[in-house]
Amino acid sequence: MDDASLRADMIEGLEHQIGEPIEPPVLTALQRVPRDPFVDDSPRGGAVDGDDPHSLSLATLVRLLTALDADEGDSVLVVGAGIGYSVALLAAIAGARRVHAVDIDRVAVRAARSNLDAAGYGAVLVDRADGADGLPAYAPYDRILLEAAVVEPPRPLREQLAPGGRIVYPRGAGVQTVAAIEPSTAPEDGDDPAPPGFETVATHGPARLQPMLVDGEQPGTERNRTRREDAERAERGRQRRHGWEQDWIDWDDQL
């Protein structure tokens, strides 16, 4: 089968998996962006969420992009460059010079840059940065996409959103819901888990993405920071001298 036929089969399988037709802008991007530079099994499939922190399943990716609802000319920030495929799809929708991506992993940044260049989207800016801080130099953004799970988007990202903009992120822990939020002046809805000043305008799901890392962490690091800090504190305590050894050292210091 030729590439066009394989790509058509991939899209048909995706629509069956998602249970509805793919929105025209996302569909056009899937048809336009080559898979070869990004994955070895192009143009079929993609990694199952959670197996590779740098790659999303195609079904999850379509849900994220559908919720984002980006348009041509929108300024877009992607938090989590991954392998660069989702960034390329957004570049095909909004324009390569309108898309910016950040990732905390230097290896992922290098891979995304290389893949995007090979796919013809080298004009996309990919920077190594803590995604929780966003990319203020190019703010504001009409659309912000988080490819990492959070309870709510960090405040710097919310502050970098343009008026009338939209943030999409996997909400929660474990199995998540893809949530789209927008600024709101309406009274807060106690049942809406959106952060203050925002409202949930769309949800898609399910998804299972890696939690957002903070600067200095690596994939697989203990996610409960309290447990990790307690373990580190206990280890430091075991390495200290105790009892008569400490008394002897103190006595020597006084001689």
Give the tags:
single chain, 255 residues, alpha/beta, 36% helix, 19% strand
Short note summarizing the structure:
The chain has helices spanning 3-18, 24-32, 58-68, 85-94, 106-119, 155-159, 225-239, 243-254; strands at 76-79, 99-103, 125-128, 141-146, 161-171, 176-183, 198-207. The protein has 255 residues and is an alpha/beta fold.
Quaternary status of these chains?
single chain
Please state roughly what percent of the residues sit in beta strands, choosing from under 5%, 5-15%, 15-25%, 25-35%, 35-45% or over 45%: 15-25%
Q: Give the fraction of residues assigned to helices.
A: 25-40%
Q: How many strand units?
A: 7
Task: Quickly count the helices.
Answer: 8
Mean pLDDT across every amino acid position? 81
End-to-end gap: 87 Å
Quick one: biggest sheet?
Answer: 7 strands, mixed
Radius of gyration based on Cα positions: 22 Å
Low-confidence regions? 41-51, 217-226, 244-251
Shape: globular
Indicate the structural class.
alpha/beta
Strand order of the largest sheet: 3-2-1-4-5-6-7
Secondary-structure element pattern, one letter each: HHHEHEHEEHEEEHH
Provide structural commentary.
This protein has helices at residues 3-18, 24-32, 58-68, 85-94, 106-119, 155-159, 225-239, 243-254; strands at 76-79, 99-103, 125-128, 141-146, 161-171, 176-183, 198-207. With 255 residues, the chain is of the alpha/beta class. Strand 1, helix 4 and strand 2 form a beta-alpha-beta unit.
Task: Itemize the secondary structure elements and their pairings.
Layout: H1 3-18, H2 24-32, H3 58-68, E1 76-79, H4 85-94, E2 99-103, H5 106-119, E3 125-128, E4 141-146, H6 155-159, E5 161-171, E6 176-183, E7 198-207, H7 225-239, H8 243-254
Parallel strand pairs: 1-2, 1-4, 2-3, 4-5
Antiparallel strand pairs: 5-6, 6-7
Helix pairs in contact: 1-3, 2-4
